[in-house]
What we know:
Number of strands: 12
Shape: rod-shaped
Largest sheet: 6 strands, antiparallel, barrel
Strand content: 15-25%
Number of helices: 8
Amino acid sequence: xxxxxxxxxxxxxxxxxxxxxxxxxxxxxxxxxxxxxxxxxxxxxxxxxxxxxxxxxxxxxxxxxxxxxxxxxxxxxxxxxxxxxxxxxxxxxxxxxxxxxxxxxxxxxxxxxxxxxxxxxxxxxxxxxxxxxxxxxxxxxxxxxxxxxxxxxxxxxxxxxxxxxxxxxxxxxxxxxxxxxxxxxxxxxxxxxxxxxxxxxxxxxxxxxxxxxxxxxxxxxxxxxxxxxxxxxxxxxxxxxxxxxxxxxxxxxxxxxxxxxxxxxxxxxxxxxxxxxxxxxxxxxxxxxxxxxxxxxxxxxxxxxxxxxxxxxxxxxxxxxxxxxxxxxxxxxxxxxxxxxxxxxxxxxxxxxxxxxxxxxxxxxxxxxxxxxxxxxxxxxxxxxxxxxxxxxxxxxxxxxxxxxxxxxxxxxxxxxxxxxxxxxxxxxxxxxxxxxxxxxxxxxxxx
Length: 448
């Protein structure tokens, strides 16, 4: 300011000489020095010097602060790239999990089993929805029930016929037994009669033999004629033959008795079995047939009862189906709503499997080529949470990643090389799917 005021006081119309110009420049320098160091002259009071002393210190403090801030920025923004160079880590990473798609096993109308909201946490085995088919085919079930009813109605009639046939068979058996006992007694009596006839014939034979002997001795002396001797001889022969015939009849009677005792009957006027025995055998066969029919009916009734149970279960499965969660997790996506008609195999909802949480990350080509299955990895969340340890379980590279993940790995698009890391304890971290961060890879967990 002093040089400007001093320069303004100089007359611009005058043209100084070179000697004047040198003198004027020297004067301007002296004037400027006086203005700048006027306060340093000895004539000024000490109070003004004391008040001017803090002035030079403030620029030094500001300069030190700026230097400290600059060093801090250099440390922060320089350390991160430096650490990224020293550590081989992912470019992007996100906490992910498997999805379980629940499909309708039958066609029908959807009904809500309980109030389910989006992101609701569910336990394994929880019934979420019901599919009801009111137009299920129950033709086979009705046919089986009709057949069972028909056989159950026929069974009492078969049981009554069987009881009647068994009673008739018992009566005929009693009659046949009586006939056999009577025939045996008859034959025993005939045998006794024949034995008596044999004894009488033997007595007559003995008498005729004695008469022939006497006539033979008398015929020698001429007291008995030859005709009388011949008559007596003939009577002896007849008595002998009569005895022989009686003995043959006795043998025949014994044969009949033995056959009767064994259940067979011999005779000229009938066959080997009497009509009562034949009727008893026929009735026994009829009773056996009726008993077999009754057993077959009972078997068919039991089989139909089992088939009805199976068909009822099948019809129940086709008429109504409960949609349950196979794993513990939460609802990720509802793909239907109560009252909607669905077809068999149609997806109804997707459940996030909280027990199979993984980390999907993409890495550079150089990092990918250094990784191996089983390497240790640590997920560092961007929100400053605790690091999560895991193990590399899949290296898909530039190929397509599994499609049953909640977040498609293709969404990480900064690098094409993809890595999947399994968490050491997935259940402990809950269903915090979507947390971002980075994965730092270490050495392999176990040497193969």
